[in-house]
Amino acid sequence: xxxxxxxxxxxxxxxxxxxxxxxxxxxxxxxxxxxxxxxxxxxxxxxxxxxxxxxxxxxxxxxxxxxxxxxxxxxxxxxxxxxxxxxxxxxxxxxxxxxxxxxxxxxxxxxxxxxxxxxxxxxxxxxxxxxxxxxxxxxxxxxxxxxxxxxxxxxxxxxxxxxxxxxxxxxxxxxxxxxxxxxxxxxxxxxxxxxxxxxxxxxxxxxxxxxxxxxxxxxxxxxxxxxxxxxxxxxxxxxxxxxxxxxxxxxxxxxxxxxxxxxxxxxxxxxxxxxxxxxxxxxxxxxxxxxxxxxxxxxxxxxxxxxxxxxxxxxxxxxxx
Length: 321
Prior knowledge:
Strand content: 15-25%
Shape: elongated
Radius of gyration: 36 Å
């Protein structure tokens, strides 16, 4: 193998390792900080075991100073004035302080480096979060501008159909014949939306929802009457706006919980901010309710009635507040 090829491979390996270290530097710094904190505590305990010896020496020296000051002379018979006693007291305590500082210096140094590591980790994560927030804001603005252009040219209905890939399909529905009193199947047109085609924040308000363990459970707010469901959603939308105006901020997870839906990771970051003087968004909560009731089909369980909700979140409210 040629020398140039070897150098290229070695350089590539070092670059790869360096990138991985940089990528995981916050975790590495936190671990180093935690380990250092424990080591600092151990060093401090060891230093404390030697403190008694230093203090005993100080006590012995101060005893001689006090004894000489009372007699007015040293053990060698030399004159010993109060000024001499003060000077010796300062010298003894200074020496004691230096000895104690020397004992605890390793623990303090390790502890300081540990705190610095944890703070450095937090600083790196903060900078990354700022960068992510900026990237999200750019993408969100571009997407909203694009939707506005679509709405301006084709209207809201076309925008909605394209965004959620809404399709009109003929479906069968069992109804009660008022004349005969018997059940019969009738054909009707339903708007069908595939769950995989909706946005990350949009949700279906439907009979079943998912709990924290991922199990399908009955939504306690769902009723068989769509009129009641729409009335409930409008009431919750109004309540959400009241909360927003009162608290000045509202997380998407708060709204999910109001509707009997599972909380999400994104829901604890995005939401709405209310600022009438300097608005950062719409200054109100909109569930995206439409006049028609949408349904979707998973093509396995048949057609299930559901109402599509698309929330007009302002974005990452941690950065907006």
